[in-house]
Amino acid sequence: MKRKLKYLFLAALFAFSTINTTPAKTVSATTEPNYVKLGGEPFGIRILSDGILVINVEEKMCGTDIKSPAYESGIKKNDIIKKINSENVYSSTALSDAIKENKTLVLNIERSGKELTLSVTPKIDNNGNPKLGMWVKDSSAGIGTVTYYDDKNGIFATLGHGICESETGSLIPLHYGEINKATIYDVTKSVDGKAGTLNGYFEDEIIGTAYKNTSVGIFGKISEANCNEYIEVGTRSEVTTGDALIYSTVDGNTKKAYDIKIKRLNTISEHNGMLIEITDPELIEITGGITQGMSGSPIVQNGKLIGALTHVLINNVEYGYGIYIEDMIKEA
């Protein structure tokens, strides 16, 4: 059974210039480390966080002038609760169960890379229920685009940016991630001022696990690569402004190459390494430019994999940013 769920990820992207485009070349598997399998296919991911992320702390108990226990104890937005009463926690259910006991909780918290211990005692709200006065999150799900497969190590890389909590913008600490095949069934087009989405559903088949959520991408192990097309990895020094290709899937689960231009290069920034412009009339007609869900779409120039799409420029959705593939490979 296929579960039709509308998922999305924001792809952060910008525009670029001109050079002759060359289709990605297919070669037989080699022992050379500078060849990977070209991505471009959609995937679904569900992740469970390593701890519970605090996304908001209320100063007062709802509907009262009573200070909330979380606020009084010094718990802050973006804190990660790693343990409750010395027990590791990975779900908000564990916190809810502990609060129901209406006893003082000892929380081991990670804050800005430092560990601290706080005690907090629930208070009874207007409905007679014990509460702490904070909002937490333990998981996330969405659809993205595979950048490349390293079949020699069974590794895949995607997104070119991390999965963040929408309220706080903080990276979700990854405990476990489940990778599924996905199919795109519809596109909500982007318009200037608002990014659209690739709308799709997860297949039941689980094909891998994610083990790393970083600022330059998601990395994991995969049982099979839905691709037999090898491509050489290009270095940062080989990238030029000019013509290039982007591989993405905007219908079904089959990728296609579309024309782009690399408009500007930034040799310092990881995340804004390339400013790109979507120039392919077909892709613009279907998506309006760059949509959420295209994050990770591989960028190819002169037959080499050079980067991945990461963000959309909201005030001009035909433009976006890309990351150099070197930065992703280094992190993987």
Could you explain how this protein is built, in words?
The chain is mainly beta and 332 residues long. The chain is 8% helix and 46% strand. The chain has helices at residues 69-73, 92-100, 281-287, 325-331, and strands spanning 16-17, 35-38, 42-57, 80-84, 87-88, 105-111, 114-120, 123-124, 130-131, 134-150, 155-158, 174-188, 197-214, 217-222, 230-233, 242-248, 256-265, 274-278, 298-301, 304-312, 319-324. The protein has a 19-stranded mixed beta sheet that branches. The protein has a two-stranded antiparallel ribbon with strand order 8-9. The longest helix has 9 residues, at 92-100. The protein is elongated, with a radius of gyration of 22 Å. The two termini are 33 Å apart.
Count of helices? 4
Note the gap between the termini: 33 Å
Strand elements, count: 21
In terms of structural class, how would the helical and strand content be classed?
mainly beta
Structural Rg: 22 Å
